[in-house]
Every structure is written in C-alpha cells, then in structure tokens.
C-alpha cells in the first residue's frame, strides 16, 4: 500500500441531478440534486467508508461510481482513465475491474436463476473459459466466500440473507476486480450475520488485494472496516479523513452530531459523552438551502454560513472539512 | 380444472373429425343434394322438396340423433352438419391457437424492446401500438380481411393465397398485439429498474443477453396466463370474421361459417346455426374460466386483465 500511487478511482466535482416532472406538470420541471460536487480520491488497497443518513445520496453516488447512472457533471476517473462519458460497450472492459455488491441480496439476485448460474454469469460474459473451466472457477469462488459446493444448483430463495449476500459477493469478485463498491452490503442482514460478512469482506481484501468503497449508515460497522471515511450530507461530502481521527475528533458539526449518535457500551461512567441532537429535518434535495447546506440545522451557524458555501478544504494533513468554522482538529 | 377438461374434450372431438367423416362415410365439403339415406329401414332424402306454396325450394334433413348418420341433420347443401361441426371446430381451434402464438411472439417482442430500451425506441413502438389499439378490434380485423381476402398477401418471397387459413391467423394475430405488448412492456419497465438487472448491467452483460436470461424468465407466468385468454378472444374473432365470410372461405368450414349457413335455415332447421353457436360459447367460456383459474394459481397479485381499463 503506497499512498503515492495513482489513485484507483477519482471523482472531480461529480454531480448527479435527476429531473422529475415535465414542463407541463403543475410544479413544472424540478431538479433533485442527489449528488452535488463530490471530489473523492480512492487509493489502492484502502477501504473508504461513505457514511451519512438515509437519502443523503450515498447509493446514488455508488451507482454513479460504477456508471449505472449517467453522470450529470464533473469527471470520473478509474485508474487514470476517464470513464465519465464512456458508452456501455466501452465500459465493458472497465466493468471487469470495477464491481459492486448491492444492498439487498434478495433483490439483486434473479429469483429464477440458480446461484451457480448467477456466479458464472460474469465469467461467461468476460472470461474465455470452457464450461468445465467455469464450473471449476465457480466452485473455487463458492469455497472462497464460504458456500458449500452443492449449493450451486439451488435458487436464491432457498438461502438465508447472509448466504445470499455471499453469492452476491462471489459474483462481484468472480473476475478479480481491483475495486469493489459495497452499497450497504450488511444493512439488510441480522447483526450476527453482519459480523460474518464483514469478516469475509476483510479476508477477501487481504487475499485478493481488493480496494473497497464501503457505504453504510451504520457507523460502528464503517468504523471497523474503513481506513478512511467520508461523511455525506445532502449529496455533498462534508468531512473526510482517516477513520480513527474522524471518529475520535470530528471537525464538522454534522459529523459531530452523527458520531455522537453511535450507541456505545459504557465501561466507565466518566467516559459519558454528550449526545448532540440536531433540530429540524434534512432539507429537500429539490430545494437545497443557500450557502452552507447544513446551516439551517447547524448549532454554530453564523451569517456567513447562510450566504457563502464552504468548500471541502484540507485543514490538516489528510483531514478535509467543508465548514467555515470547524472544530479544531 | 373442469373447464380445462371440457375444453380438451372439444379439442379431441375436433381432432377426430377426419375419422368421424370416414366412419360416417360422408364428405363434409361436397354438396349432396340428391343423396338418400336409410333410417330405420326407410329411405329418406337428405333434401326434402317443399310441399307448401309453389313447392319450390328444399328443406334439409333434420337431426336424426344417430351418430354417424346425419346426427345433427343436413345443411342447405345436404352436408352432414355434425361432420362439418367437427371440421369447423378443428379450423377454429387451429386458427385461434396459431393466432395466439403469433400475438404472443409479436407482443412479447414489442413489449420487451419498448420496455427495455426505452427512450425513442419506446416512444415510437408504443405510439404505433397505440394507433393499433385506437381502432375497434373488429373494425380493424374486418377492414384488414376485406382488403386481403380477394388478393391474398404477397410480401417479398412470402405469398399467402386468398383462401388460405393463414390469412385470418395473421389478421387476428396482429390486431391483438397491443393487448399483450402493453402489460408486458409495463412489467419489463419495472424489471429493468430492479436490482438484479442493475447487477447484470454492472457485470457488463450485453443488453440482448439480459433480456433473454434475466427479464424473459420473469415474465413467463404472465405469458402463460395470456394463452387461454387470448385463445378465447381469438376464437370469438375468428367466428365473427368467418360469419361475415371474410375469415375461413367455403367450402372449408369453421363454426362461424356454419352459423352463416344456418342463418337461412333458422326457421326450419335452427339447430344448424345453434349447434356451432353453443360450441363457441362453451369453448370460450371454458377457456376463460380456465384462464382465470390459471392466473389466480400462478400469480395471485397479477393485474393483467384483458380489455381496456
């Protein structure tokens, strides 16, 4: 893991806007700013955690990163290669190296195909293998993710949620990708199963030298797996930095509130933390507030925050915060 | 299941039409005005000279209720109505099932393409189907039949002669395409945004393969449900066209043409028109009941309904 290498994935001011309604509907055409001006750099071998509450654009960003959505603005570079505007056919070789695991394994596996067939699909499309070679590779992958060889012929509904997610992971790593985008891979699972999947992902990262972008709203999971985290609020990144530093000393008022909400097992009464409760709701991404997006709910907002939007700037080596008045880091 | 049994009984009866004709020793396509048959040792002419008025015209033989011997009587050409019923049913069934296959293939293809590719493809295809849909089915079918019935169709190397049974098959097959394409398109649209299709796109699976391997297997239940319901609709349409003499052409028979033959004999021999009418009603009802049952069994939450909502 050398930090000076070319980043495996880089976004430059990436934005995704959805139009809803038409010129003829009562409110006219409106635009949802789902992802707004995100610049993120992911280096080989690291795990970048992407956190934020529901609806902040994490999943949209994930789908932009693998080009399941077209990008409205900005640039997306994969291993130095600009893939912002590549067509489906041009993307095909990129897809071998850039994979995704979806949140809900019962929705992301075709209910009418056997799991062995599902895992073999990427091999059939990309790899020039004989059918015996494919069978062999599928067996290898099943072993790698902890499924039994005789599971190959079963249908997805015959599995538990955790096993299904293992199938989803096997499919994603079938082609030995460089980067895997994990879109809330454990949110749909029971807590005990979550730990198994998280451990499996960590093992696979070691064995296959994978880079992860790990999206979750469960901060304790993210903290456990990530080397670096980025906090999102209303489509933008508000804070970014090494995982432990951000968790122990969050600089942005939103990160502070978010991290204070993580339940912890109190071991000593002296360690009692103050819970920051935010007032109000997340504003609609249809009409984001002027100035700093967070100002209507921010406990430390001043006049400047209402008019001027803070940029994501580096305050300390590796720590970036988008706030005019960050807590000292 | 009882409905299916009734329908299958009709199918087997019709399939045995050539056997019945040979056993009864009648040619259902040849007019036999001067034939004489023997019933209970008595010779009875098939066509009876009218005794009223000026003594002109003939009244065909009424039902004898003897299987193999003008069971349902004769029609105005002196032909065995029972044998014609079976042959006609065979034609009706063949045409409606071939048309069903045609409708399902065209409708599924249109629905898959429109739903999956979206954008301009969807707009053009959907508007074209809307135009088809905008015509009353029978008006469209009748117009198409009238245009093609005299000359047949000749597109490139494919030539269909004017008397061919393929003509009603193609016409009926085409007019019902929007009925199938619409619901299929809706389903494909929903499936296209499902996560497993997203996952397949993300794996770099080419579009046609996604359609074939991921989407098509998920709409097969809908297609299966469509089969009996479309069959029933097609049978009705086929009978209507044949009744108007723009479907099956004489001397070939179909239930529709037999009703037409019976029209002139409605006062003297009502059974000639009544029998095929009953056959149509029973088959269509059986198919509809079976289709509804099939839908409930396969997909209780399905919203597929034939006809316009």
From TrEMBL, chain A:
GO biological process entries: peptide transport; transmembrane transport
Alphabetized GO MF terms: ATP binding; ATP hydrolysis activity
Keyword vocabulary terms for this entry: ATP-binding, Nucleotide-binding, Transport
Protein's UniProt keywords contain Transport: yes
PANTHER family in alphabetical order: D,D-DIPEPTIDE TRANSPORT ATP-BINDING PROTEIN DDPF-RELATED (PTHR43776:SF7), TRANSPORT ATP-BINDING PROTEIN (PTHR43776)
Similarity comment: Belongs to the ABC transporter superfamily.
UniProt name for this protein: Peptide ABC transporter ATP-binding protein
Lineage, highest ranks first: Bacteria, Pseudomonadati, Pseudomonadota, Alphaproteobacteria, Hyphomicrobiales
């Amino acid at each position: 893991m050398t930090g000076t290498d070319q980043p495996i994935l880089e976004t430059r001011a990436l934005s995704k806007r959805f139009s809803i309604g038409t010129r003829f509907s009562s409110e006219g055409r409106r635009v949802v700013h789902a992802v707004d001006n995100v610049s993120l750099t992911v280096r080989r071998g690291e795990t970048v955690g992407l956190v934020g509450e529901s609806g902040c654009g994490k999943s949209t960003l994930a789908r932009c990163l693998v080009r399941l959505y077209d990008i409205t603005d900005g640039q997306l570079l994969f291993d130095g290669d600009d893939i912002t505007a590549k067509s489906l056919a041009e993307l095909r070789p990129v897809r071998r190296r850039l994979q995704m695991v979806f949140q809900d394994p019962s929705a992301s596996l075709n209910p009418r195909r056997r799991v062995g067939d599902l895992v073999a699909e990427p091999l059939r499309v990309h790899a020039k293998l004989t059918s015996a070679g494919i069978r062999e590779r599928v067996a290898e992958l099943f072993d790698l993710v902890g499924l039994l060889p005789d599971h190959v012929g079963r249908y997805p509904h015959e599995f538990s949620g955790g096993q299904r997610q293992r199938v989803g992971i096997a499919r994603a790593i079938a082609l030995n990708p460089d980067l895997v985008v994990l879109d809330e891979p454990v949110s749909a699972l029971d807590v005990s199963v979550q730990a198994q999947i998280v451990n499996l992902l960590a093992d696979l990262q070691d064995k296959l030298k994978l880079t992860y972008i790990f999206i979750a709203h469960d901060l304790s999971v993210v903290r456990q797996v990530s080397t670096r985290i980025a906090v999102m609020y209303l489509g933008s990144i508000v804070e970014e930095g090494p995982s432990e530093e951000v968790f122990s000393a969050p600089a942005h008022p939103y990160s502070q509130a978010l991290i204070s909400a993580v339940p912890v097992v109190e071991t000593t009464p002296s360690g009692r933390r103050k819970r920051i409760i935010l007032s109000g709701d997340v504003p609609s991404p249809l009409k984001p507030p002027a100035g700093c997006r967070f100002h209507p709910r921010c406990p430390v907002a001043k006049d400047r925050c209402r008019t001027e939007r803070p940029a994501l700037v580096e305050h300390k080596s590796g720590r970036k915060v988008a706030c005019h008045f960050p807590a000292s880091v | 299941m009882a409905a299916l049994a009734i329908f299958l009984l009709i199918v087997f009866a019709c399939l045995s039409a050539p056997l019945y004709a040979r056993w009864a020793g009648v040619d259902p396509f040849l007019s036999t005005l001067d034939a004489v048959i023997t019933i209970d040792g008595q010779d009875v002419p098939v066509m009876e000279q009218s005794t009223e008025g000026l003594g002109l015209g003939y009244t065909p033989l009424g039902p004898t209720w003897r299987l193999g011997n003008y069971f349902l009587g004769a029609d105005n050409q002196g032909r065995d109505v029972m044998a014609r019923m079976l042959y006609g049913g065979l034609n009706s069934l063949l045409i409606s099932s071939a048309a069903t296959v045609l409708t399902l293939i065209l409708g599924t293809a249109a629905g898959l393409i429109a739903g999956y590719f979206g954008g301009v493809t969807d707009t053009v295809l959907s508007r074209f189907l809307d135009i088809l849909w905008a015509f009353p089915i029978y008006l469209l079918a009748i117009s198409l039949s009238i245009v093609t019935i005299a000359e047949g169709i000749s597109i490139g190397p494919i030539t269909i002669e004017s008397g061919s049974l393929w003509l009603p098959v193609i016409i009926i097959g085409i007019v019902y395409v929007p009925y199938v394409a619409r619901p299929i398109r809706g389903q494909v649209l929903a499936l296209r945004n499902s996560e497993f299709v997203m996952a397949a796109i993300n794996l770099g699976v080419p579009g046609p393969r996604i359609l074939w391997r991921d989407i098509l297997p998920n709409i097969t239940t809908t297609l299966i449900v469509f089969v009996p319901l479309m069959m029933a609709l097609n049978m009705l349409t086929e009978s209507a066209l044949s009744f108007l003499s723009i479907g099956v052409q004489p001397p070939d028979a179909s239930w529709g043409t037999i009703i037409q033959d019976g029209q002139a004999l409605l006062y003297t021999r009502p059974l000639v028109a009544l029998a095929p009418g009953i056959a149509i009603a029973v088959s269509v009802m059986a198919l509809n009941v079976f289709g509804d049952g099939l839908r409930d069994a396969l997909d209780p939450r399905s919203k597929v309904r034939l006809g316009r909502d």
